[in-house]
Specification:
mainly alpha, Helicase, Ruva Protein, domain 3, 6 helices, 0% strand
């Protein structure tokens, strides 16, 4: 159990390292993958709408000015509203969109494991074994071994 927790922590740290690096020095491609076009409601990287082109120019300018990814996204949200973000926010009601799938997965795993736990706790069946059936089974198995 302890190894699994350490492994999960290591994986989380490795996954967070590139995210921290891109926060300080974002690229247009990264931000275009996380922002929606307000007119056609597709990812900015897929949109050719005039507003999408203006948004790309704005993002390039903010990157050149040294803004972080969070600062650029905050400016876009201030101008176009929270719907401009491709993923829901990590706070408030948007947090439900992140937590609900995980909760369903955990509850499903617990529900699937529950019958097995009951069987293990109950121990072996207490009904007596019919000796004639046991003898016939042994004979049949012996026939297949030969």
């Amino acid at each position: 159990m302890r190894r699994a927790a350490l492994l999960a922590l290591a994986v989380a740290l490795v996954a967070a390292a590139p995210a921290a690096a891109t926060e300080a020095r974002p690229t247009l491609a990264e931000i275009s993958h996380e922002v929606m076009c307000p007119t056609c409601h597709t990812l900015l990287e897929l949109s050719d709408a005039p507003v999408a082109q203006r948004m790309r120019v704005f993002i390039r300018g903010r990157i050149a000015a040294g803004d972080t990814k969070s600062e650029i996204e905050r400016r876009l949200v201030a101008q176009f509203g929270p719907a401009v973000l491709a993923s829901p926010p990590h706070h408030g009601l948007g947090l439900v969109a992140w937590v609900a799938p995980l909760a369903v997965l955990v509850l499903g795993a617990l529900a699937a494991a529950r019958p097995g736990v009951r069987r293990r706790l109950a121990g072996p069946p207490s009904a007596p074994v019919d000796r004639t059936l046991e003898r016939r089974l042994e004979e049949e198995l012996a026939r297949f071994d030969a």
